[in-house]
Design a protein that fits this description.
globular; metal-binding; 32% helix; alpha/beta; hydrolase; GIY-YIG endonuclease; DNA-binding
Amino acid sequence: MAVAIDTPLRQVFDYRAPAGTAAGPGYRVWVPFGRRRVVGVVVEGRDDTEVPSEKLRAAFEVIDDEPTFSAELLALLTWAAEYYRHPVGEVLSSAMPVHLRNGAPLRQETILWRLTDQGREQALATLPARSVRLRAIAEYLLNHAQAPASEILSATESPLSALRNLETRGFVEQFAREAPETGPVSIVRAGPPLNEAQAAAVERITNTLGSFASHLLYGVTGSGKTEVYLHAIAAVLARGHQALVLVPEISLTPQLIARFRGRFDAPLAVLHSGLNDTERMAAWRDAREGTARIVIGTRSAVFSPLPQPGLIIIDEEHDPSFKQQDGFRYSARDLALVRAQRLGIPVVLGSATPSLETLARARKQPETMSRLPERAGSAKPPKLFLVDLRKNAATQGIATPTVMAIRRHLDEGGQVMLFINRRGYAPVLFCPNCGWSAHCRRCDAHLTVHARGRDLICHHCGSQEPLIAGCPNCFADVKPVGQGTERIEETLENLFTGAPLARIDRDSMRRKGELEATLERVNRGEIRILVGTQMLTKGHDFPKVTLVVVLNADQGLFSTDFRAPERLAQTIVQVAGRAGRAERPGEVLIQTEYPDHPLLTLLLTGGYAAFADGALTEREQSHWPPFARIALLRAEATDQQAPLQFLHSARALADDYPVRGVRLLGPAPSPMERRAGRFRAQLLLHAPTHSPLQRFMSGWLTAVAMLPEARKVRWSIDVDAAELS
DNA sequence: AGCACGCCGACT
DNA sequence: GTCGGCGTGCTC
């Protein structure tokens, strides 16, 4: 049998079945591997092998009496390993909770304790009053009928010996919990009435239940996408099927979960990064056994086991967090589409700012696109204005017209939100005398001034240094240059004395619950001015905000990354969507030095749709995705030359594997060559469609992996790379 | 990745 | 004389 093992080796290993047993695809097995004993997953049950019999070893044992992965999930995972050119053993391993990777049994019988008939009748009557613990346990079980030992012991503050004592007396007994009841009941509560567009979207989606269709739910913030999801899910539950909902990490909030729980009395499994291994195992098991009717989770939840799949939803489908940026570099959004297609179920992609890939797909099938134009509560969409930074004086990054607008909104009782995509006080510490600036020792990057000027922190490797007052070169006074959230906060405090202000970024919201608490204060109106990073754009609603300011729109306009303008437009529209939710129309100011930039013009005059049309035309003309396919071969090493040498050799090898249409660009050092002490370089593969690219990689990468230079670097391939850095 | 083997430097 | 540095090879 062929077994996938958690190792970077790009192959599977053949084993003889353990004596007297057989294991089909999807089963986990303990196998000898080198000198180790490891968990593997059977990917093919066949007995034939080309491995010489003296090398072939027998598996030790089959772990469970049922497969860990269904045929469907195993096929999806092996397909993904192939597509993303990642070792299949690592892919399968990453799709399992840690306990399963380490060989824990798939089903864990929960051992519960309960009173025996004798115990129920006699325990309290016969146990002496001084046996406080024993009596407490008996009493607890009279009230609770059954409970795990851990719960009983912690509730009664007793040692395990007390429970054992009662067992010896015949008062309590342990038993394994029966298999979960089949066919869990899903109760759906009525939601608010749908508007016309929402109802049409729900109908379009539910009409395709039972077959593959990809729906784009294109609705501005506040247009009620979640309500459409909830109605579609209700239809799925009614058919006895499960729904899988994928969301970006940051928007998986208690409020969202509460909204699902409020609507459905159906078991819900939540999968996110905050779970510990045991919780993750439990949620995974609930999904696999069908106990959970709705599975809601972040990126990796796309690999949830689902015995009765009915619908997949991807909320905020444009969000970059759906693409894993290290190791197994998959896109959960793309895999959700593949999975839905293989399963023959519909998938819903929801966004106010769909990715250009998704828009291009929707153009080909306009019938699958549902637009939700209306804003709930019929508030007017916000008006966008540009503030020309070349013509207007700025105080610490805030232009005079912006200051005036903020004052006006504050005077009128509105709330103001300022967005700047840069944490810290200032991005550069500079010596005006000699031109020196503070650089990270381990990265090709400036150190950011932090904590109102007490620390220097590298945003790329996290290293931290105390701030210096004098230039190490010429001893002149150094000064912070540029703006970060902290400095904007300081400037605003000075400009608008007395206006309560809050800053929301990764630094100010470190502690758990702090973000929720601050958002609560904002929505109660205790905060008048809000400064923050990307965090502000993700999922939260600010109904009282009437003015939104985008302080630095220009970073995205001239980037080397072809996706930068798309990201910028998405950010602007997402931030703008936070304004004017209530009766007041919102106003959005975008500060820029390039007010005539065509993409900004499109965004302002025609909104995201016009921008996307323009950007798609540009992509088509310059042959970038979605009008081409790319992959990036990356390499890094502590030695500066090694990555480039490896990539040059890799490129030279390409001549041996000619495939029409595949072009190689580079190698070149990465945009930030040195990061955390390692030098990085990359080689770009480009092809008109995926199939020649895939054909090329299948031969070429095997040879690349065998290059002697490959041993001197850490290399990886990134298929459909999202960031060219 | 792990893990072992193997051949050259500074020390219990 | 050993402990251990990381180069090289292998994992069915």
